[in-house]
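testing teh design pipeline on a random one, pls ignore if ur not involved
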């Protein structure tokens, strides 16, 4: 039995409305330049796969659009600005940010 089958009809309509709004939000610009979906993808590139709230320290391909998206995403999701450092491998950059836990003082 799915979630929608287990709910009363009025709750099923509410669940459908929430899911539709989530899809709509994914394509709305939330930070001026990027949609929620774009920020999610950028954050997933740098976030710790075990726990997104952890410190960020990773290496990604470098280009201005990626840097801008990652900068916006780390602030949006973790409240932490990203810092970019050159690495020896051409075309890549190291991304470092405090992460959510540090920013909230946990």
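output:
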């Amino acid at each position: 039995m799915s979630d929608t089958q287990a709910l009363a009809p009025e709750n099923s309509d509410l669940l459908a409305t929430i899911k539709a709004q989530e899809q709509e939000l994914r394509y709305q610009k939330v930070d001026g330049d990027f949609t929620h979906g774009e920020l999610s993808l950028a954050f997933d590139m740098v976030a710790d796969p075990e726990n997104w709230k952890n410190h960020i320290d990773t290496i990604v391909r470098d280009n201005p659009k990626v840097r801008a998206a990652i900068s916006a995403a780390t602030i949006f999701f973790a409240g932490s600005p990203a810092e970019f450092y050159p690495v020896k491998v051409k075309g890549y950059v190291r991304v470092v940010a405090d992460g959510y836990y540090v920013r909230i003082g946990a």
